[in-house]
Structures are given as C-alpha cells and as structure tokens.
Amino acid sequence: MTGNTPLPALPDDWHHALAVAAHPDDLEYGTAAAVAEWTASGHTVAYLLVTRGEAGIDDLPPAECAAIRETEERTGAALVGVDTVTFLDHPDGTLTPNTALRRDLSAAIRRHRPDLLLTLNHHDTWPGGHWNTPDHRTVGRATLDAATDAGNRWIFPDLATEEGLPPWNGVRRVAVAGSPTPTHAVEIHAGFERAVASLAAHRTYIRGLASPDSPATDPRAYAREFLDRTLSPTADGAARVVRFEVFSR
C-alpha cells in the first residue's frame, strides 16, 4: 500500500530472474521472501553479490569474514530455492560508480539472460528517511544502467568478441526492493517461514550486530522480528507483502 491505496501486483509473466546486491545478506532482508514465493511456483532465480561482505564484521579479519559470509549466503539462498550464487569480488565498503562495475554487471546479465532483474534501493534514503549506504546506492544504480548496457553491442564490445557473451535485450523489468517510492507488491504466504530461515542463516553476521540484550544473539528470533516488522500486512491482513519500485523496459 501507499497510504491507503494497495499497490498493484508485480507481474509474474517471467521465467528467470537475476538478483543483484552489494553484500551477502542484503537480499535476505526482505527480498528473499518474494524469491521463496517465486521459486515455489516454478520461477528460477540466481543471486549475484558484488562483494563478499568482508568489511561487515568488526571483530573478524576481512579474509576470514569473507569466507564465512560466502558460506552463509549460499546456505541462505538455498533455503529459498536459489542454487546459483556468484560473487564478483569488488571491495566491500568502497564501491564506486565506475565502468568496471557496469561492465561486470553487464557481463552477468548477458551470461544469465534474465527477463526480470532485481536489485536493492539506489536512492539516498530508505523508507522512513534513514540514510542509505554508498555500496547500496552504487550497486542499485549500476544495475539499472547495466540493464541497458547489456543490450548494446557497442558498449563493452569485448564481452561478445572475447568472452562469447552476445548482447541481451531480454530484461523486461527491473524491480528495486527497499525503495522509498514503491510501485508494485508481491504477496507473501508460505514464503515467510523460508525467508526467516534464510536470514537466520547469516548467524555470524547477525551475532556481530548484537549487544548483550539484543535479539540478534538469537539469529532466528532476530530474523523473525525484523521480517515481521518489515513485511507489513495487506489491507485485509491476509498476507504480508514485499514492495518494489518497478521500471519497465
């Protein structure tokens, strides 16, 4: 809903989605609930993480942190029906909007050939006004740009000539989760419990957030509380929803 007006459903007339995010766990903070619904109904979804989240846990050295977060991401993805998880190894925390990132994302789009592209909030703020981080803003905007780049044979032409990745113009929509200006929604039913398990799989990261009296000391309790609060119910209370800002192409 926006105010008292229900948002239209995000069309499900697609087969394969590629979900692009900056860090392990980004997709689990809500988007994975929609992914769980989609995979249960026969759609396929692949995940692409731009970093390994190596700067995300204060008391773990980056190399050790990256290995743990990759493992937790693969576990969490599998719990919502995602078998393909790829990492680009860009530096966590210092992503910049450059052509190298756009090229890597364009290559991934050409390789996966999705008809739906998913990413996270590229705006300055989250719903409610909290400031968004540079990595999220950078990846979200670069993903929107790469959706067009991937279909233009004269942008990054070496992808075709040297890597065997011809242009892909099949992306019909880009759906941005966590946007402060959503346009569409996906109803969540059985996918909620799978989404809770998927977020709780990031137990090392979640426990790294915890103060002694925080619910984050119990990853499943933390995940349930967060998603209960974030995935607000429909007007009739019959289902939770994930909201997206959708750009058609």
Topology, please?
Blueprint: E1 16-21, H1 31-40, E2 44-49, H2 62-79, E3 85-87, H3 99-112, E4 116-120, H4 134-149, H5 158-161, E5 173-177, E6 184-188, H6 191-200, H7 203-208, H8 219-230, E7 240-248
Parallel strand pairs: 1-2, 1-4, 2-3, 4-5
Antiparallel strand pairs: 5-7, 6-7
Helix pairs in contact: 1-6, 2-6, 3-4, 6-8
Pfam family, one: PIG-L
InterPro entries: GlcNAc_PI_deacetylase-related (IPR003737), LmbE-like_dom_sf (IPR024078)
Protein name: PIG-L deacetylase family protein
Please give the largest β-sheet: 7 strands, mixed
Identify the CATH homologous superfamily: LmbE-like
Number of helices: 8
Rounded to an integer in angstroms, the radius of gyration calculated over CA atoms is: 17 Å
Strand content: 15-25%
Structure, explained:
By secondary structure, the chain is an alpha/beta fold. The chain has one domain: Rossmann fold (3-Layer(aba) Sandwich), CATH 3.40.50. The chain has eight helices and seven strands, in the order E-H-E-H-E-H-E-H-H-E-E-H-H-H-E. Strand 2 (44-49), helix 2 and strand 3 (85-87) form a beta-alpha-beta unit. Helix 1 packs across helix 6 (191-200) and helix 6 packs across helix 8 (219-230). The two termini are 24 Å apart.
Index terms:
zinc, 36% helix, 7-stranded mixed β-sheet, LmbE-like_dom_sf, Rossmann fold, PIG-L deacetylase family protein, 249 residues, GlcNAc_PI_deacetylase-related
